[in-house]
Amino acid sequence: xxxxxxxxxxxxxxxxxxxxxxxxxxxxxxxxxxxxxxxxxxxxxxxxxxxxxxxxxxxxxxxxxxxxxxxxxxxxxxxxxxxxxxxxxxxxxxxxxxxxxxxxxxxxxxxxxxxxxxxxxxxxxxx
Length: 127
Fold this sequence. Notes:
This protein is mostly helical.
């Protein structure tokens, strides 16, 4: 039961991380668009205001990149988790490969027995 709780909490953590990062990307993108609006009244726009807007857009773009990197890491973690914890799939692959090799072994043993019988027959005929 502890495994299920751990698995459930890990899944909810992944889900929470996904939602938070996607929300961060969306919110920052919307704010960049809001800052980029061109208004009809350009009077009164100072250089300090332009610098402030430019700085805010850079910060929000950095936040978008950070959230995208976190999503990339989340994808990597999910793949790693899938590979390391999917024992049923791994066991199925091992069983399938074992069955294939056992079949090949039986075929080879049959061929060896046939070859042995043929050699034995040839030796008996020549003596």
